[in-house]
Every structure is written in C-alpha cells, then in structure tokens.
Design a protein that fits this description.
CATH superfamily of the largest domain in chain A: HUPs
Catalytic activity (chains A, B): (R)-pantoate + beta-alanine + ATP = (R)-pantothenate + AMP + diphosphate + H(+)
Strand order of the largest sheet of chain A: 1-4-3-2-6-7
GO molecular function (chains A, B): ATP binding; pantoate-beta-alanine ligase activity
Number of domains of chain A: 2
Oligomer: homodimer
Radius of gyration of chain A: 20 Å
GO biological process, one term (chains A, B): pantothenate biosynthetic process
Number of helices of chain A: 13
CATH architecture of the largest domain in chain A: 3-Layer(aba) Sandwich
Largest sheet of chain A: 6 strands, parallel
CATH class of the largest domain in chain A: Alpha Beta
EC number (chains A, B): 6.3.2.1
Order of helices and strands of chain A: EHHEHEHHEHEHHHEHEHHHEEE
Pathway (chains A, B): Cofactor biosynthesis; (R)-pantothenate biosynthesis; (R)-pantothenate from (R)-pantoate and beta-alanine: step 1/1
Largest interface: A-B, 26 and 26 residues
Distance between the termini of chain A: 56 Å
Amino acid sequence: MRIARTAAELHEHLSAMRPRSGEADGVGLVPTMGALHEGHLSLIRAARAAHAAVVLSIFVNPKQFDDGGDLAAYPRDEEQDIALARAAGVDVVFAPSADEMYPSGFATTVSVHPRLTGVLEGAVRGAGHFDGVATVVCKLLAIARPDAAYFGEKDFQQLLVVRRMVEDLALPVRIVGCPTVREADGLARSSRNARLSPEQRAAAAAVPQALNGIADAVGRGVVGVSELRPPALETLERAGLACEYLAFVHPETLVPVDAVDGPTVCAVAAEAGPVRLIDNLLLNPPAPEGIGHA
Amino acid sequence: MRIARTAAELHEHLSAMRPRSGEADGVGLVPTMGALHEGHLSLIRAARAAHAAVVLSIFVNPKQFDDGGDLAAYPRDEEQDIALARAAGVDVVFAPSADEMYPSGFATTVSVHPRLTGVLEGAVRGAGHFDGVATVVCKLLAIARPDAAYFGEKDFQQLLVVRRMVEDLALPVRIVGCPTVREADGLARSSRNARLSPEQRAAAAAVPQALNGIADAVGRGVVGVSELRPPALETLERAGLACEYLAFVHPETLVPVDAVDGPTVCAVAAEAGPVRLIDNLLLNPPAPEGIGHA
C-alpha cells in the first residue's frame, strides 16, 4: 500500500496501475475524514470487490466545519487508519494537507441549491457545510479520477448532495451509496461515537429505537407524521437526548411530507452531551389493502 | 465533421477518435457561444495545430446572462457557425440545448470568490455572470474531457476565472489563452459587433485608440493612473461612447493599482448604443533608466 500526500504523488502511484483502469473495474475511491470504523471498512470492501485499484482519501476538510470547535475535536488517528486501510486491501491512501487541497489564493466553491443544502444538516451546521462537502468531493474526484466513489447512507443528505452535483456537472463517475453499518444495539457507526461517555453511549441507542418505532408503526398502517412523531420524540427525550430535528421528507427533494404515502426518509439528529448523532431510515408506505395482502 | 446535441452523442463521436487521445495531443476544446468570428477561428486554429481531435462547443449559456434582453439579443446563426467550423477543421461540434445542459432539477453552481468575480465585468453584469461562466465551463470540461481548452484573451477576466477554477478544483485540463484578434482599426473582434450601426462601428475604434494611447504614454514613462486615465476617458467621450469602467488592475488579483510599476491590465468597457464593448491591454512598466536603456 502506498501513501500519497499530494495529487502528484497519487497520480504517480496510480499510473503504475492505470493500464487496468481503462476497464470497467478501474479505480474506486472511498473519500473519508479518517477515524475509520466498520462503516468505512464496508465502503472499502465494496470498492475492493468492484475495482482493480482502491484509493482511500483521508482529509478532515476544514471547509465543511462551520464550527471550529467541532473541527478541532474531530477524532484523528492516522497511524491506526493506515493500518486498517492496509488490512482492508486499500492500494493507495491519499492523505493531503489542508495546504495541498486549499493553497493560498484558493477561491472556488461548488454549491448545491439551498433547497437541498439549507435544510436538515445544512440548517443546523450552517450554509457552508454542504458547500464544503461539494467542493472537496468535486476536487477529490478530479484528483483521483475514479470510476466510482463510495459513500455511506448514514449521511444520506451528503449522499444526495454529492449525487446531485455529479449529475449536474456531468462528472464522469458513478456514485455508490452503501448501507449504514450499526452496532449490536442499532447505533449507526460514526467517528464521533468515540467521544461518547459510557452513559451517553447507552443513551445513544434511543436514536435507532426511535427510528425503528416509526418503521414499526408505519408497518401497522400508521402513516400520519403527526401520529408518528410524538412517540419517537418521547423515546429520545426519555434517554436524555436533545433532539435537533426529526424530519419526514421526500428522499430526493427533501420536501417535508405530512404522511408516509410514498417513499419517505425519516431523518433524525440528536445531541448526546457534546456529540451530534445523526441517523435516517427509508420508509415505504404499507402495501394497500386488498391487493393480495389482505 | 459530426454534430452532437447531447453528451452521449459527443462521447460516441469522440470514442471513435479516443485511441489517439491518450497521447499528448489528445482532444482540444474550444468553448463558444456561437456567432463565430475571426477570434473564435484563431482559437480553433490553435487547437487544430495541437490536438488529434478538436471539439467546438456552441452554447448560448442562459446562466451567464443576468439580463434577459442581452440573452435574447445575442446573435445566433448556427448554420453559418457549422459551415465555419467545418472549414476550420473542427471534428465535432457540440451544440446542446439548454435542457440538455440544465435539465429540470439542476441545482449546482460553481463560483469563484467575488474578489475576482464581483469586480469589472462582474460588477456591471451582476454577480451571477461569472457563476454562470464557471458552472458551464466546468460542465463542458467534464463532458468533453479535453486535454486543453482554448479561450480568448479579449475576455481576460473570464480567462482568469476559468484558470482559477481549473487550478482550485484540480481539473485535469490545460487552459490556453489566445491573443485578441482585431479589425484593421484595432477593434477587438466580438460577436456583439454585428449589432453595431455603421456610426457606432466607426465610434467603437475609440476603445482600442484609448488603450493604445495609454500604452504609448506608459512607454514614455507616464505610469500614474491619475495621469493615464483622463486622456483615455476623453478619447472615449469624444467618440460618443459611454464608459462603464476604465480600470488598472493587477493581472492575477484584479486589485486596482495607482501606478503601472509592475505588470498591469488596463481593462475597459464602454457602450456604443445598445452594444457593450470590452477590451484590455497588458501594460508593462518602462525599463528602468540606467540599466542599459539610457
């Protein structure tokens, strides 16, 4: 496994593998902010299974942190990340400095319309968050020139913003979303979980419980958001979590819905002490009665 | 010569030529808004001399017109453009519709910082102008995937914005600026010149006259902007042109300068009736006395 600190080094390492990359299997890119966990490893495995070469990028992107404190507190352990990447079969780790990605004079922003980036995470984290995501992903795609790039469905709004950008700008890459990887009690894997105290970690399980409660209710035919929301909020509150949002939205437009009468994403964000937990679930309305499901 | 209306058609046409495009000579892209004139043809010739395949794009980009009237009045003559392109040796004309470039749901903008895009043309044409330029060029580069793209130095701020975007996003393309092509009386070639009445056309020569007067004065050792500007403004005024700006700026930062004591761009915009004329000249300070030039 090679480690590249600059775009030039990455190109050098990849050029040795490039003869294979003209084929369908080519290069797979897994963009991360490091602090690798089982969720990232599932992305690497998906890329490893599909591509001749796998590039893992590790870059804690300052542009997507509106809150300097969150940026400073974001967990970093490059040595362990590199060991995990090597074990998972990564070919090249691309770990650039902030100066390599944003040299003096950098002046370009890629942004997606606020109807997709000003709501949910964008409303909480600030308008600049998804601008930072879109800009860095656009640049990483230009540098690594992968055939496909892999993102977790846990950050479903990020995945949607990236898909939108790639389609709009006709970037020649396939975006692959991978299912959220969960702990035994259902908590979505996240680099930020490392900062939870034991009590907060126990309380955090209320987030997937709330989502599962909603999915169960929808399965029983309860589709009104006004009925689905209160018990879920109560689940979060009983665990001592501060709910930031619990939203029912269209999976592509992010427009809020009143009822789960079509595919709907339920997205939640809650604070466990200093740590923001986010999660989501795709809900499908119950099959209509009398069409073979009576 | 082939004509492509969609990205898919362009890829189809290019794939027949692609075997050669892995080489240094590859594909050259000349992005235009059509209404081809000698300036565009000089870009095509430069691309033709350097590349195995030349793509000419013709797209009157609605996103870079803040003024709907200017968009509606922009000259269009696709039949003649195609004939000129064929004669100049273009391999593929890419002439997409607005719906092909900006389908329903399009939501992405590429923008360069207002310190480069909010001044000069950006100040007159509105903040959205260069956002529109950067977005469409980014998309055209992603669709055509050229080794190099050719732009005229007449639109020097556009060239600067494109260079900045390409460098910042690490887009794998070389941006080539080509010298302004001029009429016999010095007027810079522009698609908009077609809309000048004979009187306006005669008056328009005052724009290069004003610039040349400045260059002559600098050559005589006059470097203070406060001395250089008044005679140039008078030249424009005497010709009946309404000056929008006559600026002396740093060629890369666009910061205004007080004196031509380093490389300086003098950029001018003036109205001849309904037509905006823009032009610019790179000024270099006179060689210092006593170093072999006494």
